[in-house]
Amino acid sequence: MKERVAIIGIGQTKQSYLKPEVNAEEMVNEAVRKAIEDARLSMKDIDAVVSGNIEFLEGHYQADCQFADGFGAWMKPGLAIQTGGCTGGSLVVAGTMLAASGLFNKVLVIGWQKMDATPFTGAINTTREPIYDRHLNVGAAAFLAARGIRYMEETGCPEEIASLSRALVSEGASRNPYTHINRRLTAEEVMKSRVIVWPVRFYHLAPTSCGAAALVLANESEAKKAVKKPVWIKDLVVVHRETSVYRGGAVEVSSSPDAVEKAATTLFKRNGIVNPRKEIDVWETYSPSSWYDMFDMERRHIAEKGQAWRLIEKELTRFDREIPWNPSGGVVCSNPIGASGMLRVLQAALQIRGEAGGHQVPKEVRLAQADAYGGTHWSEFFLLSKYLS
Amino acid sequence: MLKLPLKIVNEDPLVLQGKIYLDYAYYVGPIATRFFTDLRDRGKFFGIRCGECGITYMPPRGTCGRCFGKLEEWVEVAPQGTVISHTITYYPSVCHPVKEPIVYAIVKLDGADTGLIHMLGDVEPSEAYSGMRVEAVFKEKREGNILDIKYFKPLR
Amino acid sequence: MIERADGLRVDDSYYYITIPLHLEYKWAQGHYFETFLKGLKQGKILINQCPSCGRHQIPPINVCGRCHVEMGEWKEVGPRGTVFAFNIVVDPVYDSGIPGMREVPYTVAHIILDGAPDVTIYHELEEQDLSKLKVGMRVEAVFKPEKEREGLLSDIIYFRTVTEPE
Is the model's pLDDT at A67 over the cut of 60? Predict the structure, then answer.
C-alpha cells in the first residue's frame, strides 16, 4: 500500500430483529453521525463515501443513490458495493484502498442491512443459480449443516460441541449492548432449541437482523492527527475462488485450496506470524454458524485439523480466556448482512482501543484478526494493529 | 421428490422461465409517517426546512445533504405549484399506476425548494409545459401513500 | 404483530407499505448446460472433464476455472454414487419461485457419482429417516418415466438407497 491506513472513527446502531421505527436511510444516519462524532470531525472533512448492502433483502435497488443525504454522500465521490455475505468486508477493503491510494485523505465506509423487509430465505435464495440448485436449497442452513455432519464424521467431535461454542460466545454477547441476540445461553439451552436443518439448531445459526455500521478511515498523516489513538489496518488479503456452491463447492471433494484458509495463511505468512494462537490477541470472524467455529479455527491455524473442538471442549475460546473467539458474540448473535463483515473489523478495532466495554478482553490487545467471507466465495482477511510498526 | 417451478420457453437454444415473487414490508420511518398521515387525514402537504441552508425539502427528509444537519422544522407548503419538467409515457406496462398516455412531471409546490415527482391530469399531453401552474387533486378514499394525490391539474 | 403466510413477521403498530415485487425471468442455458439437461431427458448424466487437469464439472460449464482452458470431453457418469454429505430440511421456507412455502421434510445431499470422484451432484434423497442416513451410503438416481421427462434437473426424482455386496 502506498499509504498506511487507520481507523479513526467508529459508529454502529443497536442491531435487532426489527427496526420498524426508522427507514433504512434514518437507520444508517445514526451510525454515520456516531462515526463522525467519534472521530471529532464534521461531514465536510470526509473526502469519499463507500456504502453497501444486499439490495434484494430490502427490495430497493440503488438505495445509495436516493439516500445520499442521510449517508453524508451528497456531492462527494464514492461507490456502492455488493458482494453478498462479505459485503461488509469488501467495503473496508475498498475504503482502505481509496485511502491508501493517496487520492483521498479520509474515507467514510458504511455497511447496512434492514432485514425486517422480506422473508429472508425467499430473498437470499435468489443468489442461487436459478435452475440447478435454487429450489433444492434452504438458504445457508443446509450448507452449514452439511459441513457440520462432515466435521463430526471426520473428527469424532460430539454434537454438543457446537452448542457449547454458542454458549461460550453468548458470554461476550450478553455484555455487548449493540448485538442482536444478547441472551446468555447454556449449552443445554442451545441443544434444546429447535432443529432447522439437522444438526443445525436455531441458536447455531446467524439470525436475521437490522443494523448499520460506519467507519472513518484515514491515511497515515491524517491518522496521526486524530483525536483518538488510530487503529492501524496493518494488512489485508482478498481471495476469490471460482467454484460456486452450485458446482459442489461448499463441500467440494477434491483437496482443492480453500479460499478462507488461503487468505489466513497468506496474511499470517506475510506478517511473520508463526503461531497465530499465541500471537493474535483477539479473533472477530465471520463464522455464520456455531457449526463453523471448529472448522474456522482450523482454517486459521489455531488448531491442527480435526482438533479445534477440543479447545471448545476445554472452554478456552471464551472472550476472557486464552483464545478470545468472537468476544462481541459474532455473526451468530447478530447478522445485519451488509454490515456484518464490517462489524467484525469494528469490534476488533474497539478491542484494540480498549473501548469494547463489557466484552473487552482482559489483556492488552496489540494484534487482532477480523474477516468476512460468504457464499459468494470472496474472503477478506484483515490484520489490525495497535502500533504502526 | 424434486419439483422445479420452471417452464421451458425455448428449446433450441434452451431458455427456461422462472419467477421471483417477493412481498416487501417497507417501514417508512417517522418523517414519512408524518408526511403520509397529514396527506391522508388532512389533505395537506408538509415539508421540512433546513434553517442553515434555507431550503425546504418536499418530500421531507431527516438529514440535509448540504450541511448534514438534523432536520426538525416542519413547514406547511401549498397544494399549488409549478411544473419544473415533464415527459409523456405512451408504452404500456404493468408497472404503470394508470392507463397510458401518462404525463409525468416534477412539481415544485409553492413554499418548497425541491420538486415532487408525480403525474399531470385534466390536461392534453401535448398541452403540458414546463412552467405551467398546477394544483393537487386528491383521491376520494385516501390510504396514506403517494397515490393519495390522484394527479396535479392545471390552475386556470 | 402480523405473521404473514410467507413467514415474515410485520410490526403493524408502525407505518409500513407493502411493496410487491413480482418478476418473471428468462434464463438462457447455453450449450454446456443444455447438453447436460438434454442428457437427463435421455436418462443419462453427462458431465465434462478438463483436458488439461482432468477435473470434472457438475453441472458442466465451458471453461475450467483452474486451467482456463475450454472443457471438451463429455463423459457419462453414475447413475450410482456415494453420499458425501446430507441434511434433512424440517423448517418450512418460502420459495419465491413457486411462489409459496416449500413442503417439508425433504433430504438434500451431495453425491459423488461413480466415474467422477472429485465432484458432487447436489440433489434429493428418497430416504427421510435420519437414523438410516449415513455419509458413505450407496445411492442411485431414479429417473422419471421417459415420457414425463422434460430436460430439467427434476427428471431425476431423487436418489434411492441401494444395497451392494461388499
Answer: yes
Question: Does residue B1 lie within any of the structural domains?
Answer: no
Residues B97 and A190: their CA atoms lie apart, in Å, by 49
Convert the pLDDT of each residue in A76-124 to its tens digit: 999 999 988 889 999 999 999 999 998 999 999 999 999 999 888 788 8
Residue B100 CB coordination number (10 Å): 12
Put simply, the answer to whether A69 touches B2 (Cβ < 8 Å) is: no
Q: Is the domain defined by A5-119+208-224 classed in CATH 3.40.47.10?
A: yes
pLDDT digits (tens, 9 = 90+) for B100-143: 999 999 999 999 999 999 999 999 999 999 999 999 999 999 99
Q: How many other β-carbons are positioned within 10 Å of the β-carbon of residue B32?
A: 23
The answer to whether position C166 is within a domain reads: no
- For chain C, say whether B147 makes contact (Cβ under 8 Å): no
pLDDT of residue A248: 44
Interface of B with A (CB under 8 A): 2-6, 16, 18, 20, 22-32, 61-68
In this structure, the strands spanning C2-3 and B133-138 are unpaired
Task: Give CA–CA dist A329/A173, Å, rounded.
Answer: 4
ipTM attached to this prediction: 0.84
Q: Output the DSSP codes for A23-67.
A: -HHHHHHHHHHHHHHHTT--GGG--EEEEE--GGGTT-TTHHHHT
Q: Is residue B82 part of a domain?
A: yes
Structure-block grid coordinates of residue A325: 473467539
Q: How many domains does chain B have?
A: 1
Q: What integer is the mean pLDDT of C21-41?
A: 91
Closest of B54, B85, B86, B89 to residue B71, by C-alpha: B54
How far, in Å, CA of A213 to CA of A339, rounded? 6
Residue written as cell 495463511? A265
Instruction: Show the domain range for B72.
Output: 21-154
- Structural domain count of chain C: 1
Amino acid at B145: N
pTM over 0.80: yes
* Amino acid at residue number B130: S
pLDDT of B10-47, one tens digit each? 988 999 999 999 999 999 999 999 999 999 999 999 99
CA distance C137 to C124: 14
Chain B touched by C96 (CB under 8 Å)? yes
Whether omega before A324 lies within 30 degrees of 0, making that bond cis, reads no
- Per-domain boundaries in chain A: 5-119+208-224
